[in-house]
Amino acid sequence: MSFNNAIPPRGGANFGNAFDLSTLKKSDQPDLPIPGVAVTQENLVSDFVSKSKEKVVVLLCWSPRSAQSKEILETLGKLETADQGAWLLGTVDVDSQPQVAQALQVKAVPIAIAIVGEQLLPLFESVPPMEQVRLVINKLLELASQKGIGQAPEGPTEIPMEPEEQAAYAALEKGDYKIAKQSYETWLKRKPNEQVAIIGLAQVNLMLRIEGLDPELTLKNAKDTDLTSQLMCADIEVASGNNQAAFDRLLSAIKRFSGDDKDKAKAHLIQLFNLVDPSDPRLVKARSELASLLF
Question: Which SUPFAM superfamilies match (predicted)?
Answer without folding.
Answer: Thioredoxin-like
